[in-house]
């Protein structure tokens, strides 16, 4: 009798368990479908979830667990390259306008290259803080540019970036009050739709400003210069990703839209020369600068990675021979440690000086030749955190620009897929399925938040050092850690040059410093 009852109870329990399991599976299925629909169609904040509905949620779960298991299974916060987790996390939180405070002490090691700012016991009080004023570029141009922000968006071409990424950057620049550099891929309606200032970059293939034969077109230059949003023109000599190398745009990537924007035939490969055609010396370069500035009426400068610097001495001497109005209105100094573009490892790893050396070198040459009021220096190269931006300004940069920092603000997760058309966040892909994960309105706000929070924290560093605003920072406000673990003043590593010294005493005898260290972010 008992066995019959036990058997009936077991059968009944099994039935209920089976029913419960089916009910649970049904509930899980319904929940999964609802979450899939929400991720795919309703939410607009997370590109990963829009492109990989439901599955993408596991990224945040594992990211959360990583905080606890990282010390056993994953790299430490400061170990990854080219940007470590601490740097990326700072940008992500700044872009989301979340608190960036930390607890229990710094994780930054006292390694060679670390920059330490020297606080004062009498910091600048908030009520005494000065507003960072706009700065004029190109006083000799017919339409000088008064730039509002000291941190701006560096050159990234449409084609390298997706359509929604460019739209988001444009909107963010408009809200932030900074400029957006087009990169060498030409100007699109997407660059203009956000209403922000635009810097047009003239690459070696003259994309967007070329005639039918591939030569620089004065008519196209004038046409672009007539747009009020286009504030400056930047002639690119080289870039950090591939100094000394041009690019090849494969035929399959030359869509009708790309062809229209760049001014090249549809469906045919396009090759960018590895240098500016016809520019073989200082006089040629100054002639090109004068031509572009005369046709456009707007400030014109150059972008370059510094390797040898004899050509800069020749350039500055030629400027004084011709007159100060012949000078480039700005020089963008790019670091030789890579960038957003895909390039051979040999160039990205081993060609061109790091910004830690090239920036002070250019600033000192400019000042030594008495051109500090004529030529603005723009620093470019991994300047995505407040300390790095403050360092660049203290070394003498008038402005800083960043590309990858704003890519992180768009949602980039450093998946290293930029050259494969498989970017999971939609930033550097032309796959429509992946692009839809990046919502321009949402990411545009994040770009603006990143800019605002970065500027705010650079100002905080400046106030801690006792000055009213960032452009008052000087080399004596910071020190750099050397190989022994000690720190040396930046003004000792790079003694400031008396303005006009080289004009009075002849050309400098500069040698690559042996005791310089890579600047740590």
Brief rundown of the structure:
Helices cover 40% and strands 11% of the residues. It is an alpha/beta fold and 521 residues long.
Structural notes for this entry:
- Helix 4 packs across helix 14 (404-410), helix 5 crosses helix 16 and helix 9 crosses helix 10.
- The protein has 18 helices and 15 strands.
- Strand 10 (300-305), helix 10 and strand 11 (330-334) form a beta-alpha-beta unit.
- It has helices spanning 2-42, 47-51, 57-73, 85-95, 163-176, 189-192, 218-225, 256-262, 282-296, 310-322, 345-350, 355-368, 386-394, 404-410, 432-435, 440-464, 490-493, 501-505; strands spanning 115-117, 135-137, 145-147, 151-153, 179-181, 197-202, 230-236, 248-249, 270-271, 300-305, 330-334, 376-380, 399-402, 478-481, 487-489.
- It has 521 residues and is of the alpha/beta class.
- The model is unreliable at 511-518 (pLDDT under 50).
- The strands form four sheets. The protein has an eight-stranded parallel beta sheet with strand order 4-13-12-11-10-7-6-5.
């Amino acid at each position: 009798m008992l066995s019959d009852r036990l058997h009936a109870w077991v059968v009944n329990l099994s039935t209920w368990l089976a029913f419960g399991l089916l009910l649970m599976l049904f509930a899980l299925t319904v929940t999964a479908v609802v979450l899939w629909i929400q991720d795919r169609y309703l939410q607009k904040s997370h590109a990963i979830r829009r492109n990989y509905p439901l599955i993408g949620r596991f990224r945040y779960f594992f990211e959360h667990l990583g905080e606890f298991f990282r010390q056993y299974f994953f790299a430490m916060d400061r170990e990854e390259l080219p940007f470590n987790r601490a740097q990326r996390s700072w940008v992500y939180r700044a872009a989301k306008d979340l608190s960036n405070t930390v607890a229990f002490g710094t994780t930054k090691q006292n390694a060679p290259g670390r920059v330490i700012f020297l606080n004062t016991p009498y910091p600048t009080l908030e009520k005494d803080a000065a507003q960072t004023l706009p700065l004029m570029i190109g006083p000799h141009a017919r339409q000088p540019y008064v730039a509002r922000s000291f941190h701006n968006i560096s050159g990234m071409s449409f084609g390298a970036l997706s359509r929604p990424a460019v739209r988001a950057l444009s909107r963010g620049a408009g809200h932030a009050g900074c400029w957006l550099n087009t990169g060498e891929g030409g100007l699109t309606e997407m660059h203009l739709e956000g209403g922000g200032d635009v810097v047009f970059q003239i690459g070696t293939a003259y994309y967007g400003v070329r005639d039918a034969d591939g030569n620089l077109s004065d008519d196209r230059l004038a046409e672009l210069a007539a747009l009020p949003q286009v504030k400056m023109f930047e002639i690119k000599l080289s870039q950090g990703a591939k100094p000394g190398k041009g690019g090849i745009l494969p035929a399959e990537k030359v869509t009708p839209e790309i062809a229209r924007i760049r001014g090249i035939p549809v469906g045919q490969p396009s090759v960018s020369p590895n240098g500016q055609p016809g520019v073989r010396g200082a006089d040629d370069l100054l002639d090109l600068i004068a031509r572009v500035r005369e046709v456009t009426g707007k400030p014109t400068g150059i972008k370059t990675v510094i390797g040898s610097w004899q050509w800069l001495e020749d350039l500055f001497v030629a400027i004084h021979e011709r007159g100060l109005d012949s000078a480039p209105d700005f020089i963008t100094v790019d670091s030789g440690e890579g960038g957003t573009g895909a390039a051979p490892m040999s160039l990205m790893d081993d060609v061109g000086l790091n910004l830690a050396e090239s920036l002070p070198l250019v600033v000192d040459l400019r000042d030594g030749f008495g051109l500090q009021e004529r030529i603005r220096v723009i620093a470019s190269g991994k300047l995505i955190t407040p300390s790095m931006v403050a360092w660049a300004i203290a070394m003498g940069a008038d402005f800083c620009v960043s590309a990858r920092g704003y890519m992180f603000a768009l949602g980039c997760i450093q998946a290293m897929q930029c050259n494969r058309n498989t970017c999971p966040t939609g930033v550097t892909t032309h796959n429509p399925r992946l692009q839809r994960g990046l919502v321009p309105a949402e990411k545009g706000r994040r770009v603006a938040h990143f800019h605002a929070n970065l500027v705010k924290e650079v100002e905080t560093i400046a106030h801690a050092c006792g000055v009213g605003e960032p452009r008052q920072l000087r080399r004596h406000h910071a020190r750099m850690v050397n190989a022994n673990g000690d720190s040396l003043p930046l003004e000792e590593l790079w003694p400031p040059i008396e303005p006009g010294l080289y004009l009075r005493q002849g050309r400098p005898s500069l040698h690559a410093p042996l005791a310089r260290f890579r600047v740590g972010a």
